[in-house]
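Reopening this ticket.

The earlier resolution said the output was attached, but the attachment link was broken on my side. Pasting everything inline this time so it's all in one place.
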Amino acid sequence: MKKICMISFVLHFAAAGSGCASGNDKKAAEAAPAKVYMTRDISPAGMKAVYEALGRKAEGKKVAVKLSTGEPGGNNFLQPALISDLVKSVKGTIVECNTAYGGGRAKTEDHLKAAADHGFTAIAPVDIMDAEGEVRLPVEGGRHLKYDIVGSHFPEYDFVVVLSHFKGHAMGGFGGAIKNISIGIASSAGKTWIHSAGKTEDTEKLWSSLPAQDDFLESMAEAAKAIAAHCGERILYISVMNNLSVDCDCDAHPEPPRMGDIGILASLDQACVDLVYASPDEGKVHLIERMESRHGIHTLEHAEAIGIGSRQYELVDLDK
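Inline output:
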């Protein structure tokens, strides 16, 4: 399998190798659609197959595995049994930040209890990255955000593996990798900063500071760009399309899924969105309505506009 030294960061993930192309080869690589690897096998073996297809290894003294530990009460989050083998193989630490909206993960002690109750502390260390404060990462070319506010532990990690559960979301239309690295890596204040499109960092003022919908969606893309710039090539993405509820794992009482599972992708969100639309499952209308009613696709449009990816890709079926 040819390795290409190129990452189309936010809209889909390209297979990226350890050697960089140069000259005409580099231009050709930049012009080629990114490869998005997919399997329908939603199992530990499927996770491993997608990871290995990327041709890259998560390396470093400290490897972060970013996922949602799931709000207490919900059960659609990525299950430890599914991800355990991959997390252990990269010697990863599961990382999260506290929420900005109350609930069972707003305080570090409660968040760690939720992670334990959901089985995550049994498979890897869990680090609530804003337990000791936060740091700012610059956003270049943002319309709303000049900086992103993330947990202070985040810069300590040498590599980030982003494990995302693709599903609906009450505010964003869908939640996938972009939400996982923007809102998910943001501290409590950072979550407020994104949700308010740069109006406030005060969690007490979150719900009274909500902006126009597109401004919020654009702010998610801009916060993701800050993570992109910080990590460079030291990041990879795996998205799992199962338990496809219209509600996010941050919801304590999510609606049950109305459509069947699809698979695992080495990808960010554009390919996942496309697969929902292409699904023969009639239940997809519920998730599509959620995405369209929140104008969710605009997150991808803005991400492309600010220069952190292309929405073009080549889907590579690992099952064939």
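Reporter confirms the inline version is readable. Residues 213-231 form the longest helix (19 residues). Confidence is low (pLDDT under 50) at residues 1-29.
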